Amino acid sequence: MQRLLAIGLLISLLFSCTSQDDPLETIDPIYFPSITDDGWETESIDNLNWNKAKLEPLLTFLEDNNTKGFIILKNGKMVIEKYFNGHSNSSIWYWASAGKTLTAAMTGIAENDGYLNLNDKASIHLGTGWTSAPLAKENLITISHLLSMTSGLDDYLGDDVNAENLNFVSDAGTRWAYHNVYVKLQDIIATASQQSYVNYFNTKLRDRIGMTGTWIKLGNNNVFWSNTKSMARFGLLSLSYGAWDGSQIVNENYYKKAVSTSQPINQSYGYLWWLNGKSSYHLPQTQIEFQGSLIESAPDDMYCALGKNDQKIYVVPSQNLVIVRMGESAEDDNFALSDFDELLWQKINALLN
């Protein structure tokens, strides 16, 4: 009798696991667009039960605040794709510091290919004397310190990353400071892979997910430019932790580390990604610790690529959302986070709810 009861219970559990109430059955699969053409499946707001009456106020807000391109993906499908202020689906625009996340992805690819290790001293690949720091201090700086913005180098001397402008302030790992020295990661990747960074990027990342775009040298910065859909494609790769339509482009474990707190000083920073929902955060060009979440109105599990003058990629795993904004600064020039993030998320929430 006990055996019959056990068998009955097992059968009951098996049937319950395939019922409509099972959370596994309600998880929507992620759609990936073709990498060989510009087609993209769409999803209607009506099917999602979003508040359609709030769409027009959102679009008006975006246009009034100097937006050029705006996209919302749900489960990978295109829900909203809008262009403003003379922009179009083929127009290119700069990612600014949102493009740091591309370099973070490439670092993970290079590590997975065996070209480097995150614990490598940067000087292994750059040679000694790549900074003005004493050699013993320079040798403390690893690849992971460059990814997490904890190199210990002076961030008040501008974007110039020549050795004479990279001065020692504190031991690597003891101070968080938003610094253009991260761009040295591109030199490390090029040296380690024995090819140009651009060639390695194009073949290992850009072309494998159907992005277009190019890196352009602007002074001391290497800035990525693309159309808005290419930014959305990278956001979709990031939503799936480095996977694209069954292929793992970036190591999944690395990607999950990249979008998690990378050091104990700034809880809201990963490997060149900004993280929402933490109890405190730091901002560029200040050592002040601010209390609260990075963007109070946004979901706690969101991670984001933030670039100068309000270039945005928001990724929300709990809702399978990717949201992209390109354009001029909504208000004043800014490095990454701005008041626009909070105001934009208030409008987005009104639509989603």
Task: Draw up the topology in text.
Elements: H1 2-17, H2 23-26, H3 45-48, H4 55-64, E1 67-74, E2 77-83, E3 93-94, H5 100-112, H6 122-126, H7 135-138, H8 143-148, H9 184-193, H10 197-206, E4 214-218, E5 221-226, H11 228-239, E6 243-244, E7 247-248, H12 252-258, E8 274-275, E9 280-281, E10 290-291, E11 303-307, E12 311-316, E13 321-327, H13 339-352
Antiparallel strand pairs: 1-2, 1-13, 3-5, 4-5, 6-7, 8-11, 9-10, 11-12, 12-13
Q: How would you explain this protein's 3D organization?
A:
The protein is of the alpha+beta class and 353 residues long. The protein is 33% helix and 16% strand. A 6-stranded antiparallel beta sheet has the order 2-1-13-12-11-8, sandwiched between helices. Strands 3-5-4 form a 3-stranded antiparallel beta sheet. A hairpin with a 4-residue loop joins strand 12 and strand 13. The chain is globular and about 60 Å long. The relative contact order is 0.15. The model is unreliable at 1-26 (pLDDT under 50).
The helix content is 25-40%
Please give the radius of gyration in angstroms: 22 Å
Oligomer: single chain
Could you say which structural class the secondary elements and strand pairing correspond to? Answer: alpha+beta
Task: Give me the count of strands.
Answer: 13
Give the integer mean of the pLDDT values. 92
Cα separation of the termini: 51 Å
Strand content: 15-25%
The main sheet orders its strands as: 2-1-13-12-11-8
Biggest sheet details: 6 strands, antiparallel
